[in-house]
Amino acid sequence: MTNDMKTMKQLLILAITLVSMLSMAISCREPEPEPEPEPVVVDKDYNFDLYVCAVKHGGMSQNKNGTYVRSVPALTADQPRVEFTGKGVDITQNYTLESITRGKYYYQVPQKATGGFVKFHIERNAAGDESIVEDAEVPFKDNVYSARKYTHAWIGDSTTLVIIGTADKAKKIIWSKLSESNLAIQSEGTFDIKLPEGFNAFSTAGLLTYRKSDKKLYYFYLTKREAGQSDAATSVTNIAIINPETMQVESNTAVPSAVMEETAGSAYGELMQSMIMYDEADNLYVAGMITVNDQEMGILRRIPVGSKTFDATWNGFPNPEGKLLTVQYLGNGKALSYSRDETLGTKIDSKSHFYSIINLANGSRERVKFNGQDLQYCGGRFSQRSVVVNNKAYIGVGGEVEGEAETNYPTIYIYDCKTGVVEKGIELSKGFCFDIIRAMDVK
Amino acid sequence: MRFGYRLIVSLALLGLSVPLAGQDSLSVKGALGDTLVLHNATVTAKSREQQLREGAFAVGALNIRLQASTLQSLTQAIDRTAGIRIREEGGVGSDFDLSINGMSGNSIRYFLDGMPLDAKGTGMTLANLPVNIIDRVEIYKGVIPASFGSDALGGAVNIITNRSNRDYLDFSYGIGSFHTHKADFSAQYIGKKTGLIFKPVLSANYSKNDYLMHDVKVRNEEHTAFVIKDLPRFHDDYLSLFGQLEVGVADRSWADAFFVSASVSKIDKEIQTGATQDRVIGMAERNTQSLNVAARYEKAGFLTEGMQFQASVSHTWDHSQTIDTTYRRYYWDGTYINGGYSEIRSRGKTWRHYRRPMTVLRSNLAYRVADGHELALNYLLNRTGNKQVDTWDSDFVPTDDVLAKHIISLSYDQSLLEGRMNNALFVKDYVNHLTVGQSEIPSTTGSDKVKGSNTQNYLGYGVGTRYLFADPLAVKGSFEHSIRLPVSREVLGNGSTVYPNVALKPEISDNFNLGLFGTFDLGGGHTLSYEANGFFRLVDNYIRATVTETESMMQYVNVDAVHIKGVDGEIRYDWAGKLHAAANVSYDDSRDMRKYTQSGDLSVTYKNRTPNRPWTYCNAEVSYTFRNVGLRDSRLRLTADYQYVHWFYLTWAAYGSASTKSKVPTQHITNASLLYAWQGGRYNVSLECTNLLDALAFDNYMLQKPGRAFFLKFRLFL
């Protein structure tokens, strides 16, 4: 053996020894203590279900890329950022993101088209993964509804669900009553409402609401010259007052076009967006639209308690920048609006949508601000990223400001309805379009 | 007396070693006129299929004639080829999607003797083309010879019909599970005096497709709740009729071949489900009738020696109807309730007529510059109209769309080193002209973005080379920068379950292939051959089918950048034409390479595997042939095969948690068949059992495939 070879052999032995020692050192090293989980501040009454859509904003059958839901116990800033990549329950194939909710339950005509209604809830396991548990499913009886094309109201201390939709190419208006607990269909029928001369279709669903003070169902629907999308100027808004016990139409009147041409939405009820609200006195407010200078603009009308028609002299959304999309009552004569500035774009993903606080006493409104700055404009024509519970309004913005992509995350801001103070809440991960917050009552 | 000769001859028949069983000697005329008498010699022949595999391009080749007596449809045979996957929506006549090396079905072009297959009518597919008329199938993976004049991106399937030069009659009838019946007739008669050649073809397929659907929801007797049951399909009847007469002459001074033909086809198809089986349909149907006239001309030595000219012209009148005139909501037990919307589209009632006239002109002029050097110029015109009217929905505004493609290609082929090296170079010019008239559901179909006419021009090019070191080892490589113009189904929809997307852009791809192949003659009649191919595709504007959230409809959409790489390999073993075994495995890795979204954020699907497509699958087949069993000059062949498809996600992996994501589950399918033929193949009886183990199988999300099925077929060949 030459010296060189000896040297090489010694070096090899040394190297093997060093590697072995290093391996042992690594394997014997004390495991690092796992970081203490941050304390979770839980609002015991609610879980918040956060909906995102892939690629572009969803809602109202606009989404073709998937809808994913995560359920979190709180929306405060101390919560970890909500991750969506590889997370969240995929509802795309089976359910619609438009839904009726009550308590912890969802009620809907599912996307999977099994021919009935379904009731389900979202569960979160110990690992934080969500799943859907179906609680009841019943087939249609005689009246058939399509996914997302219906409107609803709760009656009888919220033990009965009333569904209204249209049939026969939107030429008939049908209704069904379901039991909340097991979805059993109690009764069904077709309203004796005819299309006036020159009109060819009703709105796909209309808007239904139950007013406690007079114990009546108010059904706002459109009569349209043509089926499908139409100009507001060619439609007529109607109000049918319905006895919830007998489902008889007690009155049916057309709204003058100067008061409201169309409700803010009419195809999918309030399954996603909130367009009807009540104040403490049970005044009924409806978001609508009216044509101004050949452009459809938002309007907020009110049916005062005791009355069954709009107060034509009152408008809670004067001098609109564009369409009024959603309204939610905050208490103390204030409401949260989500509306659009037409000059900034009218597409579903246009960053032209913003939040305001409306003072219902005088119709004035002001952009929602955080640290003195307006909350940013965001996309999502059909989004409902705000919810009001426990005297707090949780307001989501999309994190879609160009040029700030690396730092700007979708964020939920928290508006204190009593003090008017806005604080920053939880953030969501990027890469998806943030569309809905639902507060699920789990108490 | 024994000779050590091994004759390598192109018999154009069997790719197998054929011992001279049943005879002791074979006389062979030598080049010098001497006659050699070979005793107990083994003749090893390279089939056309083998020759094709040894060409410069990546090709799969199938001899259909050998399988025609057992096959129900061409898709069965093609689905067992390496790198090929066929996804079927259901039973006989159901829509299917073929992928080659990971490229989706519509990236693939289909040809019948070099002409686009859909010239026979939009209803004519691999699934209902009469098997008996087919000699072989060539499957080009990725790179396609310029002679096809095609804009295929992922590959092409070229079906070659029988070109026998003698009279024959071929008739078969088969009966199978789910009320399936198939009858095919083809013949050739050559007039003794006139030399006129008559080639009639008749084919009929019928199936009720009433196979059992497992675990479907139906109403209980009181209609107050759902119960889970296994129930047969009840609205899936399929009928296809095809007739063709081809008349012509061959081997004349002015033409090697000149034929004119006329064919008619009729497809009636009930529709049972939407894009998923939750949507049950009980009344809607789709019907298609087509009439095609065509002529083809071939002449070697055209104008001058060394010049070859081929030309084909075809016109098709194609009329499809989608009848969706019921407001009903069906359940799997066949009961229904009256609803407010139509079955397929969930909108108003429609009786939509699609008239898609199609004109195809193809010409190929080749000139042999010198031995082993050939130039060729090819031109293809394909013009498809799409006129829609509705005889039920008075609100529907008739539309008139036109999709026209002109593809001009120039190619150069050379053969060097006594054929050990082959090279091919080509360049293609694609011109796409689209005229959009429709305006229905603009937010979905994009008809508001593409109005009027527009013409676009694209350039493609490619090269292929093959070097044969020795029989056991050869290497080949090819590259193509190709353009794939969207087909009418992708752009204009299918009238029932596929929405139009008139804003769809062409796919553009750089395709690389590298392959090894070889054959080992192990002696004693044992032959082992192999091939292995690697491929890489860089695709822009990849066209992907999506199930839209709205109404369970499908639609084709562009994905910005997709990279597909993969391998497939196949091993074939044969012993004396008795024992045959083959196995192949295919893997492809298709990824979304679009790093940033439009807003500048990192895309969450960056480097995700492209969803809703199989990416690992394999096939294995073994057969044994007994000769002279019972009757003289008979053979009995027993075959078993197994297919495996790995599960895959319906949507991107980054979307939603793995536990709740929709998946298409793993498939294990085993098939078995028995063929008995006697009098040299004049009479054949076969019995086939597909899905022998009655496995629950899905090719597409929530669309069950048939369970165990039997098919008995008799074939007469005179």
Radius of gyration of chain B: 26 Å
Kindly report the CATH topology of the largest domain in chain B: Maltoporin, Chain A
Shape of chain A: globular
What would you call the structural class of chain B?
mainly beta
**CATH fold naming of chain A:** Methylamine Dehydrogenase, Chain H
Approximately how much helix is present in the residues of chain B?
A: under 10%
How many H/I helical runs of chain B? 4
**Overall strand count of chain B:** 44
Relative strand content of chain A: 35-45%
Structure notes:
The complex is a heterodimer of chains A (about 450) and B (about 725). With about 450 residues, chain A is mostly beta strands. Chain A has 1 helix and 31 strands. Chain A has one domain: Methylamine Dehydrogenase, Chain H, CATH 2.130.10. Chain A has one helix spanning about 5-30; strands at about 45-55, 65-70, 90, 100, 105-110, 115-125, 130-140, 150-155, 160-165, 170-180, 185-190, 200, 205-210, 215-225, 235-240, 250-255, 260-265, 275-280, 285-290, 295-305, 325-330, 335-340, 355-360, 365, 370, 375, 385-390, 390-395, 410-415, 420-425, 430-440. In chain A, the strands form 8 sheets. In chain A, strands 12, 13, 14, 15 and 16 form a 5-stranded antiparallel sheet that branches. Chain A has a 4-stranded antiparallel sheet with strand order 3-2-1-31, with no helix packed on it. Chain A is globular, with a radius of gyration of 27 Å. Chain B has a 24-stranded mixed sheet that branches. In chain B, a hairpin with a 5-residue loop joins β22 (about 330) and β23. Chain B has 4 helices and 44 strands. Chain B has 2 domains: about 1-45, no CATH class; about 45-715, TonB-dependent receptor, beta-barrel domain (Maltoporin, Chain A, Beta Barrel). Classes of the chains: A mainly beta (about 450), B mainly beta (about 725). At the A-B interface, β3, β7 and β9 of A face loops of B.
